[in-house]
Design goal:
The complex is a heterodimer of chains A (406) and B (549).
Chain A: E1 8-20, E2 26-39, E3 43-47, H1 54-62, E4 69-74, H2 82-85, E5 88-91, H3 103-113, H4 118-131, H5 147-158, E6 165-169, H6 177-192, E7 196-201, H7 204-210, E8 213-218, E9 221-227, H8 228-232, H9 247-260, H10 275-289, H11 314-322, H12 346-355, H13 381-390
Parallel strand pairs in A: 3-7, 3-8, 5-6, 6-7
Antiparallel strand pairs in A: 1-2, 1-4, 8-9
Chain B: H1 3-31, H2 34-56, H3 59-74, H4 77-95, H5 102-138, H6 141-146, H7 152-194, H8 201-217, E1 220-225, H9 232-251, H10 258-261, H11 266-290, E2 291-292, E3 297-302, E4 315-319, E5 322-323, E6 332-338, E7 347-353, E8 359-363, E9 374-380, E10 388-389, E11 396-404, H12 405-431, H13 438-461, H14 473-492, H15 501-506, H16 513-540
Antiparallel strand pairs in B: 1-11, 2-10, 3-9, 4-8, 4-11, 5-10, 6-7, 6-9
The chains are: A alpha/beta (406), B alpha+beta (549).
Chain lengths: 406, 549
């Protein structure tokens, strides 16, 4: 079993799933000795090619499949515990919704099943529909929705209960680049509110944009696990980006570089935009000329819908360390949005000094190897600062590892 | 109390009441204490009903039920069904001819409306119950449901409740259609009777009698009462007088039973002969008391008659006799007398009746004495005519007014709902481990066996055999196996054959509240409950995301 960190939200230990045929003979080993954990407040990406065991893992986490061997804990409990489900949101790889219901009916149905009061449902249903940009299509039955619109309502149902843990299976599949960008922004916003997100994807660029850590599966086995920045950084190379230089200055810089670097190892050129960034800029300009048409519109994150989860306080950490069975923090929704700044009581700060004597590590967030221009509507700097303030976990830098089975 | 604990207590209470009932019934059977069995049965019914209702009242169950209802309504199955019913009910009397009287017409309308309601709802329920869960597993909505904080039994019960609510609504509508259709026909007949010109007095009286017959014999609810059995002493007297001579006859070598011939000693031989003589005499006595030769009479006594307060509402004697002359096509002239000599008024009724048909005679309330006893005498008045025989156990019965048509129709519909409810549980049970189209086929097969095993078992008990000669050992084994299987199925499957609401309501017989409770217990709670528990057990352990279970 993996050594449990104090704050793991999802934890599997030697998880194995073997599919059998009618005569109970083993047919496929879909998941094989899988050990991983997802920590509170992080975005974890489970990546892999088709058939690598991602969906099977998600299904086991939801109790839709039972493990052949090994164990799974979600929020400290078995997957089928209803107390777990009350704190969970799930977006499946396709939107398995009721075609005869419209958007408010769908969300009201799932809100009821999540045990929300009538008042709470009314408040959240309207706001979520607006947030996922479906206000214009709210009264159409879902059978008339496009794939992208169905994805959006699927996402809204996953968020209906303001979950602590979100399981997102291919969240950006079927969405246009704007929708995909919105979903990625939403993931980052949710993360900034302390939510934990486990996402499965084979769209690597999307995962790279949002994930703190990733695990790569192949043939049901975990090949690699670690922070995205560590796994992707080319430590032996250095990149310098400069404004366009006059030829004379350029020659001087080049001369210096040729002097310090090995011959032939220096490349010079103009950085290019990512196609996604370029596309979003073109659409944004078009929107200025011609506002919204039918179908899905632009979504806007609605912070009041999501409680801000406090990172585990030092007191809780001590409590967990001294208890045999860790009890996750209560799931009862708070009446309104929490204040923007977590106001920790004085004794906690005292304890914090006691248990964390070192400087808090720098906030981890996905950093692309190549700097890109922040796209319109993407996480604005001030929002990032909220994220930075919230994330107080030790840097997982040195822990990039390969699982022992590999 | 937390919801989980409440649910556990309700489920345990439900199971406990089922077990208590089974154990109490077994003990009562062994110790021969039917009253105790009835009391425990009633208590268990109430407790089981209350605990199952408390489980159904759960918020998640209602949410699923509402969605199931919406699903059924939006795919418009229910509307197609209602349209079929609305076409069928007015068309029925044209398709099936009655005996030409208003009473006969109403009988047909009610009977076939209720049968049509039961069959249509049965088909709808079987289809819905076997597909509703399966489609959600196939289309994977169940993946989303599984991620929400509720248990699978709530999903199963919610599906069940949704189907039952839909059925209840449809059945209520069908009941209103049947009720309206019946009253429309009565109003038509009343108008027709009023429109008969004053000159044709006979015609008008005939029309009024037809209306009265319809009201008194169909549009009512009457409790059926069988006559008291003939006193034991009658048979004892008969046996004492004839036993010796019969035994002497049987001791003659040509009539001696085979078993007696083989008996090793005289005492045993004599005992065998005595028993055979008693058996023959009992058979003869039965024939004798039920057979009424020309210029002879027969007397019955009904006790325990409780008439409603309005004493002018009399009771009905329903009877059917056979003629010893099977070829006779003429009615037989008979006399009926009602009333207890020296205690009540006496009534006499002379008329001719066709043999082998059911007839009813109205008897005034003052023919019944204060102790609730009515004496009925029957005379075969015509000399040189065949003997008249009352051969079956219920060939004569008193029908006592016990309520109105509307209440009776409602209780009849309640029994249909109980039967449909079982079909819903059966369908859901099958879909917890089978996929489409296997689950509806299996459910339908079980349902057909349920209906067939009741009637087949009755036939076997009457002495039916497949092979009269029993020639080959193979055919004997086959027959024995079929009998055993029928017996097992009859015992194991729910007793649908005990309840025939369409027959009762259409012939103006009371569907008592006791009968409704009895059906609720034995079909819905006992069989439905056990099946639902079993289905939940299987469904909770099923890996839903597997392509096929």
């Amino acid at each position: 079993m993996l050594p449990s960190t104090t704050d793991s939200v999802v934890q599997t230990a030697r998880l194995t799933k073997v599919f059998r045929d009618f005569w109970r003979r083993p047919k496929v080993r879909a998941v094989d000795q899988l050990d991983f954990e997802v920590r509170r407040g992080e975005v974890f990406g489970l990546l892999g090619p088709n058939g690598s065991g991602k969906s099977t893992t998600i299904k086991i986490l939801l109790g839709l499949l039972f493990p052949t061997s090994g164990s799974v804990r979600i929020l400290g409990r078995p997957p089928r515990d209803v107390r777990v489900k009350a704190r969970l949101g799930f977006l499946p790889e396709e939107s398995y919704l009721y075609p005869y219901l419209n958007a408010p009916e769908t969300l009201d149905f799932f809100g009821r099943l999540s045990g929300l009061s009538r008042h709470e449902r009314r408040r959240r249903v309207g706001a979520l529909i607006e947030m996922v940009g479906l206000s214009a299509a709210r009264n159409r039955p879902l059978r008339e929705y496009s794939k992208g619109m169905a994805r959006r309502i699927g996402l809204a149902q996953a968020l209906i209960n303001d979950p602590e843990l979100l399981l997102l299976d291919e969240p950006t599949t079927g969405l246009d680049p704007i929708g995909a960008r919105e979903v990625k922004d939403l993931i980052l916003e949710l993360k900034s509110r302390g939510k934990t997100i486990l996402l499965c994807s084979h769209l690597l660029a999307h995962a790279e944009d949002v994930c703190d850590r990733i695990g790569i599966l192949y043939g049901g086995r975990l090949c690699v696990i670690g922070p995205v920045s560590d796994l992707l950084a080319k430590q032996q190379l250095t990149q310098i980006t400069l404004p366009s230089l006059p030829p004379a200055s350029f020659d001087r810089v080049r001369a210096v570089l040729d002097e310090v670097a090995e011959p032939g190892s220096v490349t010079v050129g103009h950085p290019v935009d990512r196609l996604e960034t370029y596309f979003l800029r073109v659409i944004e300009e078009a929107r200025q000329v011609r506002p919204e048409t039918g179908g899905a519109g632009a979504g806007r994150f609605e912070p009041s819908l999501f409680r801000k989860l406090e990172p585990a306080s030092p007191a809780e950490v001590i409590e967990r360390l001294t208890q045999a069975a860790p009890e996750p923090s209560p799931a009862a929704p708070e009446p309104e949005a929490a204040p923007a700044e977590p106001a920790a009581p004085a004794p906690s700060r005292f304890l914090e000094r006691l248990v964390m004597p070192h400087e808090p590590p720098p906030a981890k967030r996905p950093e692309a190897p190549e700097p890109v221009e922040p796209p319109a509507g993407a996480c604005a700097p001030e929002r990032r600062s909220v994220i930075d303030r919230l994330v107080k976990k030790p840097s997982p830098g040195p822990e990039a590892q390969k699982p022992p089975s590999q | 109390m937390k919801a989980g604990a409440r649910h556990t207590i309700a489920a345990l209470t439900f199971v406990g009441s089922l077990l208590a009932y089974v154990v109490a019934t077994a003990i009562a059977l062994i110790l021969d204490l039917p009253t105790i069995a009835r009391i425990v049965g009633m208590a268990a019914t109430v407790v089981a009903l209350a605990s199952s209702l408390s489980l159904l009242a759960d918020r998640h169950v209602w949410t699923i039920a509402r969605n199931t209802l919406a699903q059924a309504l939006r795919v418009r199955v229910a509307f197609v069904l209602l349209a079929t019913y609305l076409v069928l009910v007015p068309a029925l009397p044209f398709l099936i001819k009655g005996d030409g009287t208003l009473r006969g017409l109403l009988h047909v309308v009610i009977a076939y409306s209720l049968i049509a309601a039961g069959v249509l709802l049965g088909i709808l329920t079987l289809t819905l119950a076997t597909t509703t869960l399966w489609t959600e597993i196939r289309d994977k909505q169940v993946f989303l449901l599984e991620a929400k904080p509720f248990r699978r039994w709530q999903l199963l019960l919610g599906k069940f409740l949704g189907i039952v609510l839909l059925n209840a609504a449809l059945l209520a509508f069908m009941g209103v259609v049947t009720w309206a259709s019946v009253h429309h026909r009565v109003a038509q007949a009343e108008r027709a009777a009023r429109d008969i010109p004053a000159s044709s007095e006979v015609e008008r009286r005939r029309a009024e009698k037809r209306l009265r017959d319809a009201r008194e014999q169909v549009l009512t609810a009457r409790r059926s009462l069988l006559p008291d059995p003939p006193p034991e002493s009658d048979f004892e007297d008969f046996a004492r007088g004839n036993l010796e001579s019969r035994m002497r006859q049987l001791q003659r070598s040509d009539r001696m039973p085979e078993a007696a011939k083989a008996a090793p000693d005289e005492a045993l031989r004599r005992e065998i002969i005595r028993r055979e003589a008693m058996r023959q005499l009992a058979e003869e006595f039965h024939k004798l008391v039920n057979a009424v030769p020309p210029l002879y009479g027969r007397r019955w006594q009904f006790s325990g008659i409780t008439l409603p307060r309005s004493r002018d509402l009399g009771l009905t004697i329903r009877f059917k006799f056979f003629s010893s002359d099977r070829k006779s096509e003429d009615p037989d002239h008979v006399r009926w007398e009602f009333g207890v000599p020296n205690r009540t008024k006496a009534y006499r009724y002379d008329d001719a009746f066709m043999p082998d048909e059911v007839h009813e005679i109205q008897v005034p309330a003052d023919a019944v004495d204060r102790d609730g006893v009515l004496e009925v005498r029957f005379y075969n008045v015509e000399p040189r005519r065949p003997t008249l025989v009352f051969s079956e156990a219920d060939s004569i019965q008193a029908l006592i007014p016990a309520g109105g048509f509307t209440g009776n129709l409602a209780r009849g519909l309640a029994i249909i709902l109980v039967e449909v409810l079982f079909i819903a549980v059966l369908g859901l049970f099958c879909s917890t481990f089978l996929s489409f189209p296997v689950s509806p086929i299996v459910a339908l097969a079980i349902l057909l066996l349920t209906f067939l095993s009741g009637s087949l078992n009755a036939e076997f008990e009457k002495g039916f055999t497949f092979d009269q000669n029993q020639t080959s050992p193979a055919s004997q084994i086959a027959e024995k196996a079929t009998r055993a299987l029928t017996k097992v199925l009859h015992t194991v499957l729910p007793p649908f054959h005990k309840y025939s609401p369409s027959e009762l309501v259409s012939s103006g017989e009371e569907v008592s509240l006791g009968l409704v409770l009895d059906a609720t217990w034995s079909i819905a709670l006992l069989y439905g409950g056990v099946l639902m528990l079993l289905g939940t057990f299987i469904f909770e352990r099923r890996e839903i995301a597997l392509a096929s279970p």
